[in-house]
Amino acid sequence: MDQPSRLLLLVDVAELGSFSEAAKRRELDRSVVSKHIARLEQELGVRLLNRSTRSLSLTQAGQAMVQQGRELRDWMYHTQALAENMQQLPSGRLKVSAPGILGRCLGFEAMRRFRQHYPDVQVDLQLEERRVDVIGEGYDLVLRVGDLKDSNLVASPLAPNHLLIGASPAFIERHGEPRDLATLARLPALTFSSQQFQLDYLPYLDDQGREQKLPLNSQVRTSEAEVIKRGVMEGMGIGVLPAFAMYNEVSDGRIVPLMTDLALPEFGVITLLYPHREMPLRTRRFIEILREMVGSPPQWEARIPGFAEMYGKGTGGMGLAS
C-alpha cells in the first residue's frame, strides 16, 4: 500500500470512528489497518490519531490530513469519471444501494435492463435499510424514500410514493368490506416493522385536511414487504404498502383496494441520491433506464385501474368519519 492509499485509509478510520470498522470496509485485518496508519505517521513525521482503549480522535495534524485525503478521494473519483465519460460506452463497476422493498420492486428490474444494454459494467446492488455513507463507501447511486439532508449529495426525485390499503377477495368475503375507520382499525393487519422504521398505523387526512394516524390491529409484523403481500393474498389480514409493491397483485385481482374514498397523504417521494461531482457515464445511463422504466405518472399507478382517483388524489377529498 502506497502513501496515498494509506491517506485514504486514514479517511476511512476517521469517518467510521475505529480501526475495526475501517478494516471491515476494506476487508482487512484490524492489525493491518493499525500498522498502515502507524506507517503513515512515521512517513509524515507527525501523530495523526490520539489513541485510547475506548476511542480514537484526530490530532490537529490528523484533521488536516483527513481533509487532504477527502480531496484526494474526490479528485480520483472525478478523474475516473472524466475518463469514462470520454468513452462511447460505460465501463467499470456501478455500486447502488436501496432499501429491500425498493430494491426488489425497482432496483432488480433496472439492473436487468441495464446489464442487457451494458454487459461490460459490473453491478453491485446492495439492499439495506441503514443510511449508507454514500461517498465514504463508494456508492454511485442510492435509492431512498424521502430526502436526505446532506450538502454533499444531490437529491433528485424519481416518483411520488402513495400507499394502498388492500385485502384478498376471500378476506373481504369473510369479514366484509370496511366502510369506516373504526371497522378498519379492528381488522387483523400485517404491518411493516424494522429496526429503522415501523408502519403499524395508517396515515390519513381528516375532514380538515390534517394528517392523522390510525393504529392498525397488527397481528403479524415483518420487515419483508413480500411476506405482507403473501399474507394478504392468503387472507390473513389487511395490508398497507406502497402502490409500487402491490400493483401486480391489484391489477390481476389477487388484492382488492380498500376504502378508496379515504384521503391519504403522499408517503414521501422516491428519491435518487448521488454525490456532488462529475457523474460517471455508467451512473447516468442507469438513471436514464430507471426513469424510463418508472415513467410519469409511475407505471405502477397507471396499471392499477382507477388509481388516479383513489385515496383523495383525484378530488382532493378528505377523510371519512370514524
From TrEMBL:
Can you provide one Gene Ontology molecular function annotated for this UniProt record? DNA-binding transcription factor activity
Q: What Gene3D superfamilies does this protein map onto? A: 3.40.190.290, Winged helix-like DNA-binding domain superfamily/Winged helix DNA-binding domain
Record CDD domains: PBP2_CrgA_like
**Keyword flag rRNA-binding:** no
Highest taxon listed in the record's lineage: Bacteria
Record's keyword terms, sorted = DNA-binding, Transcription, Transcription regulation
Instruction: Please name the InterPro entries in this protein's record.
Output: LysR-type_TF_proteobact-type, LysR_HTH_N, LysR_subst-bd, WH-like_DNA-bd_sf, WH_DNA-bd_sf
Q: Could you tell me which residue ranges the HTH lysR-type domain spans?
A: 1-59
Protein name, entry field: LysR family transcriptional regulator
* Family matches, as Pfam families: HTH_1, LysR_substrate
The UniProt family comment states:
Belongs to the LysR transcriptional regulatory family.
Record's SUPFAM superfamilies?
Periplasmic binding protein-like II, Winged helix' DNA-binding domain
Q: What is this organism's lineage?
A: Bacteria, Pseudomonadati, Pseudomonadota, Gammaproteobacteria, Oceanospirillales
Q: Name one GO biological process term.
A: DNA-templated transcription
